[in-house]
Design goal:
The chain is of the alpha+beta class and 310 residues long. The chain contains seven helices and ten strands.
């Protein structure tokens, strides 16, 4: 009987131990599941961001002035029944000419900005508003958030302009362009009842004059004549015309030994072996004497001469 009782007791304890192990494992799995669920919820919460309208929305305006592309990127605050100039925007203090990041203006070519020559590139547009005059500034630091960190030493243009009073109130800060004519136009900064206008002059007229001279007076460039000759050579067209074009190219660029090499190849295709040989030898000699290198034309002419000797 004692043996039986001990056996029963042993079996009972064994079942209790197994039951406890099961409960521990079960609780452990539940804990793991809770941790994973909490992690997933935290990740989802971190990724989910509430999107609301910006109080000062960003705008970009792109305008062709003459032949120059001018773009302005800025944030547009509203007056919202406030007194803007003198209060929201204090007089006599540097202003980013917008909200958030400093306003940026980009010129695709050099321009004259309010009478000051400015190279092509992107600049921060700052202003110092005043009752009777404004100072308009282009600064080379384009990574400023607001006016913090502004350095006058990095100004590339600084001009003084008298503001004008307009009748219709402008609720939202507006930068735009007007009076676009020929090679010039105006950049306007308008807000509340104030308008500040900056004249921009571009090199459009001189660029057009250069085109006229090149196309009508000087005629096609050496490169244009060479390209036409190469096209005829590579496509087995009129070699007499190709020769005339390459001769015109050489006349415009007497130092271009690569044009002389092209002339030798045209003469080769025309069957004028002796003339082609002379042109190839001349091209090779010019390549050897060129202080900036032969650009591979010594080898090119050597190969051509071997072909001609056959």
């Amino acid at each position: 009987m004692k043996l039986v009782n001990h056996s029963v007791l042993f079996l009972s304890n064994y079942q209790k131990i197994n039951s406890q192990k099961y409960n521990i494992m079960k609780n452990s799995n539940q804990l793991k599941n809770l941790v994973v669920a909490a992690f997933l919820l935290a990740s989802a919460a971190a990724q989910a961001q509430l999107t609301t309208p910006q109080p000062s929305p960003t705008a970009t305006i792109i305008q062709k002035v003459g032949l120059t592309d001018v773009s302005v990127t800025y944030s547009r605050p509203g007056a919202k029944e406030r007194v803007v100039f003198g209060e929201v925007v204090p007089y006599g203090k540097i202003w980013r000419t917008g909200a958030n990041k400093a306003t940026a203006i980009t010129f695709s070519t050099e321009v004259t900005f309010g009478g000051t020559d400015v190279k092509a590139g992107t600049y921060s547009l700052f202003t110092i508003p005043g009752k009777d005059e404004w100072i308009v500034i282009l600064n080379s630091n384009t990574e400023l958030w607001g006016a913090g960190g502004y350095e006058e030493a990095k100004d590339v243009a600084r001009i003084t302009i008298k503001p004008t009073v307009i009748q219709d109130k402008v609720e939202t800060l507006t930068l735009d362009f007007s009076h676009l004519e020929g090679d010039q136009g105006f950049l306007n900064v308008r807000w509340e009842n104030i308008n500040v206008t900056v004249p921009i002059k571009t090199p459009a007229n001189s660029a057009v004059e250069k085109q006229i001279k090149e196309m009508l007076l000087d005629g096609p460039s050496a490169g244009t004549y060479s390209s036409a000759a190469r096209f005829y050579l590579e496509n087995d067209k009129d070699m007499t015309q190709a020769l005339a074009w390459i001769d015109a190219a050489i006349e415009k660029r007497t130092d271009a030994f690569w044009y002389v090499h092209q002339r030798a190849k045209i003469l080769q295709k025309m069957g004028k072996v002796n003339d082609a040989m002379a042109a190839a030898e001349k091209s090779m000699q010019m390549a050897k004497e060129n202080k900036d290198g032969d650009f591979g034309y010594i080898a090119n002419n050597e190969k051509l001469i071997k072909e001609l000797k056959k």
